[in-house]
Amino acid sequence: MSEKKQSMTVFRSDRHEDVAAMIFAGLVVLFVLGYMAFIVPEVHVTAAMDGKVASILVQSGTEVKKGDTIYTLEVVEKKWVNNVMQENTVIKDITVKADGKVLDVPAKVGDKVKKSKNTIIVLNHVKGTLP
Amino acid sequence: MEERGTLGKLAAIIPGLALMVGTLAVLRLYVEPWMGEVTLFGVKGWLVKVLSLNYILLSIITGMLFRNFIFGGRIPAWAEEGFRTTRLFIKTGVIMLGSLYTLQTLLKLGVSAAVLILGFVFGTVFLVMFLGRMMKVDRSVTAVMAAACGVCGVSAAVAAAPGVRARPVDLALAIATILGFGILTMFISPFIGTALNLSDFQYGAWVGTGILNSGQVLATCLAFNPNIAPGTAVAYGEVWNVVRVISIPFVVFAITVWYWKGEADAKKASLSKILVSKFPVFVLGFFGMTALSSLGMLGAEGSETLHLLRTFMAWIFGIGLVGQGAYIDFREIKAAGGKPLRIGIIAGTTKYILALIVILLFMPKEVGF
After folding, report:
1. Strands (E), chain B
2. Once rounded to an integer, what is the mean pLDDT over residues A98-126?
């Protein structure tokens, strides 16, 4: 059985490869957290889910705190009631994830947006926080 | 083979690694978006939505094309060292997969649902082990097939493979079986769901339990109800699927212990000693990442920080999967015979039908989350 193992690693052993993978993953996480917390000059906050922008509660220059609602999104929810599918349009409050100042608001009320694709606001977040 | 210094070894890695990264870049930046726009059979993005042809599958398929058609059956010497970084990328991706989940997500689901899902996961694992023993199939093949059929297909099989010293062809067989089975169930499930008047919750729970591959769970749910929002089939199916994915480390642990116990018995060595020296410790990294995610140290859910982290994860996985595909040799698959395929089909079908029966008998139309 042991003979069938192929040399599929550039490391001395599988254990070395495991440790290298953990270090690699750790470095990626540190890079992303460090970059987002301290280096990125401005953050493009994208749509939280698919839907239609119902309202935008901030404008250029608005100071925001983590947890503040920055826009609302109209999404379609489906529910079964007594064996019948009912579609409801609901409004979802979307909050900001870090303190900061709004630099720009590219989205407009009525825009159809896709999750993680369309930018809603551009934020200059407080350094050291994770937007 | 001549001895190389560290710089020489690093330089030898570059050509193959560059090919893997370049291939993924083309697939992710050009091919996948193009497929999302193409209209087939009247459905925009049919290739992605119905065939589940995302970058994961495309990476594996392209790697297979490299080896079996472009390279003429073996990875050329100039690319060999680069392709040997494959498992490093896959293990790193598996560790980062832990960032997708939090303990809070699990708690939302409720104890009875979690017990049901884990019952199916481990029940399938034991069934595959039993069938493997009955059909006298190699333990590595059985182990990878057990992970693939028990949990969620590709990622579980990929995570289990290094710990049980599975050959690329073992992994290829497991992946081919579950994807083939998944494509079949993907087409028939929406019809069954509609015919039985299943609610989104029931359908999501069934598909999330019975279909073997995460991407196909998503596609099958969207085929039933194309809306993506809380309360839809895809939302329920994904929560169900998350629990299965969270069980990956536990399943990998159980399967690895089973495999090495067999090895220890064969070599008359101590199981604990073999586990200490051979256990795939990278699995612990997955737990660490889930712990960080649960504590909110990777950014809030929905934040751009988590989004960037997951983008990195997708690229790392993709690079590894191009390499993984290049280790799959069609001749080896042919030589392996049909037993693994039979095991996968028996286990998959049993799980699919049993899950539907349980859902029909015990699951209400609606739940409160």
Report:
1. 39-40, 43-44
2. 91
Return the domain boundaries, chain B: 87-362
Contact in structure between B356 and B206 (CB atoms under 8 Å): yes
CA dist., res. A121 & res. B332, Å (int): 53
CA distances from B24 to B49, B109, B323 (A): 20, 35, 10
* ipTM exceeding cut-off 0.95 for this assembly: no
Rg (CA), chain A: 22
Confidence (pTM):
0.72
Give the number of beta-carbon pairs within 8 Å between A and B.
Answer: 144
Could you tell me what percent of chain B has a pLDDT over 70? 82
| B161 close to B251: Cβ distance less than 8 angstroms | no
Q: pLDDT (tens digit, 9 = 90+) per residue, B151-190?
A: 766 667 877 777 787 877 787 778 777 777 776 787 788 8
Query: Do B62 and B23 touch, CB atoms closer than 8 A?
Result: yes
A59 contact B CB<8A: no
**Which of B75, B80, B95, B284 would you mutate first to test chain A, the one with the most A CBs within 10 A?**
B95
Question: Are the C-beta atoms of residues A51 and A75 closer than 8 Å to each other?
Answer: yes
Helices (H), A14-128: 14-34
